[in-house]
Amino acid sequence: MSPPPATSQPSFADAARFWLRLGFVSFGGPAGQIAILHREVVERRRWLGEREFTDALNFCMLLPGPEALQLAIYLGWRLHGIRGGLLAGLGFIGPAIVLLLGLSWMYARFGGLPAATGLLLGLKAAVLALVLQALVRIGRRALGSPLHVALAIAAFVALEWLRVPFPAIVLAAGLVGFASAWRAPQPRLPSAASVRDGAPLRVVAVGFALWFAPLLAVAATLGPQSLWSRLYLFFTQAALVTFGGAYAVLGYVTQHLVQELGWLTGQQSVAGLALAETTPGPLVIVLQFMGFMAGWNQPGPLSPEAAAVLAALLASWATFLPSFVFIFLGAPYLERVTREPRIAAALAAITAAVVGIIATLGLLLARVVVLPGGFEGGVRWEPLLLAAGLWLLLERSRLELHWVLLLAALAGLGLHATGLA
Fold this sequence. Notes:
Layout: H1 12-25, H2 29-44, H3 50-61, H4 67-110, H5 114-142, H6 146-160, H7 166-180, H8 200-222, H9 227-240, H10 246-260, H11 266-277, H12 286-297, H13 304-330, H14 334-338, H15 341-370, H16 374-377, H17 381-396, H18 401-417
Helix pairs in contact: 1-4, 2-4, 3-4, 4-12, 4-13, 5-11, 5-15, 5-17, 5-18, 6-15, 7-15, 8-9, 8-13, 9-12, 9-13, 10-12, 10-15, 11-12, 12-13, 17-18
């Protein structure tokens, strides 16, 4: 058997061209985006070895935030230090931010038109199918023991009926997992790699300054209790506990912004997830849409457009900035972190709790899509059957996600045009 091909170091210009192109083709959710990164970086270009890529992925899965974005940042850092990580991360999310801003404005202005209503009906059914698929797949992987099943059930009950805050559920699950592996034997670990491009304190200081500057500007101009200041602080908090991906954090954000504050409606939150599914980049970009609609609905002293764009950009900054800080801070210690059994046990427990959290999101989506008028209004069978058909299509075929979404949109348009929904 021939030895595996050696890795090669690309020039910064070659890597830059790849990272800038990546943001336009990174469809398919986290799994699809990670597959693209593996195919391009490991298999085709051979910039990194298989073991290095796997260790990097495991490390990113330990962190709160979108793992595909963090993996891209790490790979860029691994190749060209902090400037490479910045370019990789910004290239990954830049197109999605711009595209979703345009789609958000179109939804806010024209979402009530008949054609838009039909398209969104199909996309909402697709979102329900996607959440069900995620629930089943994550459940199969995460619920491997009675402890993990119990954590999933407890998380669902705590969030749906007891109204326990999302961060408290994540923290409690992590502590339970950590404690369950307290007596696990500790492996002999190599010393941490030297920090490249700056010491940890400098990374933390710069990260804090970049986070604090928008808050200071908004508080000084619009007030510390304005919607924008409160929204920025809330999305920062959400970013720090975003374990389990966009579906988990969306349940938390929806509970707070829709049910507690009333800044947007349940229908708008589902429409935002549907639009986010149609864009490249990390699915957690849906939080930008949530911020946009909060600003549009509560413009205060600004015009609806200015209020919405400001809120959207603040939401994105608060959501994505921590991912860059986490990677630049922790990347030099990757091997030590990923081989610590108690940390792995804590992550497994959090992932199990996330199953219950995603179940609450699925229940919310089902209410919005299938029971928009409550039980008194009856079940809307057409979107329910469409969602079931799309779930079967996702499970049984190899059709790529963007084609499934296109079929869903056309089906919704047809149902609305014929008066069946």
